[in-house]
Amino acid sequence: MIILEKPYVSDFLIETIKKNNFKVLKNQISKTFFEDNYLNGCVIENSCASDELFYSNSENSIDWILRNYAACDVAKYIKISKNKILFRDMLKKVYPDFYFKKISIKDIDLLNPKEFKYPLILKPSVGFLSFGVYPIYNSEDWLQISKKLKNDIKNLEGIFPHNVVDFDEFIIEEMIEGDEYAIDAYFDENGRAVILNIFKHPFFDENDVSDRLYYTSADIIEKNLKKFQNTLDKIGECIGYRNFPFHLELRVNENNIIPIEINPLRFCGWCITDIAKFAWGINVYEYYFKKLKPNWSKILSEVDNSYYYFTIADVPSDISNKNIKYVDYEKYLTNITNPLEIRKINPVENPVFAIVFAKTNDEREMKNLLKLNMKDFIVC
Question: Half-sphere exposure of 134 toward its Cβ, with a 13 Å CA cutoff?
């Protein structure tokens, strides 16, 4: 079953559903894309077989799943995945020395910052994208971070459901050194991970925690496929995932591969996972529901080593969305030489104003996008 929800549903996902006659939950969002006679076949049963497959374009669907399938494995997997503290607890067997601690937002000003080991990361225990995520390098950072965090919470209030972003409880954990990657994959009926894409996640500097840009290439897939497969299989064995799609972020250094977080029931959010059709000719939705596995040897032998990337044009947190008059998209797109698809997003209702898929052979183009000040393209 596919559950469509805000904030964004791509045309490619809708086309895929219609082409394959995939079952879709009848709700307010799906009714904008499908006739009633298509949606009437979807019945809420409040129970599911062990091989039932669920997918959603958005974590906004989590509330519905937890209400209607509370006793099913999928609800258990979601709860473990979404709560970063619970996820860390479950992985203690694999990462016994990893430091993390739960804190409450109401107590954040009462903490003694000199008691912690730096550097560390502060983030919501239940979160989405990089909202409310801050690197902290010393005890003097606490006061500044606390003020900014409270402002971010005020600006984002009401945009996402409580089960998607929860600013009541936070986790502080050791800062994981190394290069950051993301993986779109699913666990099959045997708990074996099937990797559908691997992205590298670059940052502008050490203080950058944004999701501004991710990219992939044949070289990235080839160098990381085997070792990431081993890591995912260990996670699957530890937690017991079955028939479950996910988006995982992790860090890689000389000694370790350490997961940052796992996002349940979906691949890259905002339908950005669609980039696989440009890079590899893969329809990730079909691969998941039809239980297909990419033949990576064949795929990589047929492509060049260009970079395929997506970039998210975010609305800065200190801009009130309701004050935005318009976005200068033409000016923004001068920074992208070979756009493959441009998705304009309403910035008054969302924390981003565009998502762009592109192809390049020049790493400098991607580095330039990381340093852009998005205020240059927003008129208030």
Answer: 19
SS3 content of the chain, % helix, strand, coil (to 5): 35, 25, 40
Mean pLDDT highest for which of 66-75, 166-175, 257-266?
257-266
Whether the predicted pLDDT of 135 surpasses 90 = no
Res 161: pLDDT: 53
CATH homologous superfamily, domain 84-174 = ATP-grasp fold, A domain (3.30.1490.20)
The CATH superfamily label for domain 179-379 reads: ATP-grasp fold, B domain (3.30.470.20)
CB 274 within 8 A of CB 192: no
Query: What element of type H or E holds 74?
Result: helix 73-82
- CA dist 292 to 22, 102, 196, 288, Å? 15, 39, 10, 6
Task: For the beta carbon of residue 264, count every other beta carbon within 10 angstroms.
Answer: 21
Q: Which of 9-23, 54-68, 142-156, 263-277 has the lowest mean pLDDT?
A: 142-156
**Helix (H) or strand (E) segment spanning residue 15:** helix 11-20
**pLDDT band at residue 290 under the 50/70/90 scheme:** very high
Distances (CA, A) of 276 to 38, 180, 287: 27, 19, 11
Three-class DSSP category at 380: coil
pTM of the predicted structure, to 2 decimals: 0.87
Give the C-alpha separation, 315 to 311, whole Å: 13
CATH 3.30.1490.20 in the chain, residues?
84-174
DSSP per position, 268-283: SGGGGGGHHHHHTS--
Asked if residue 356 lies in contact with residue 311, where contact means CB atoms within 8 angstroms, the answer is yes
User: Which 8-state DSSP code applies to residue 253?
Assistant: -
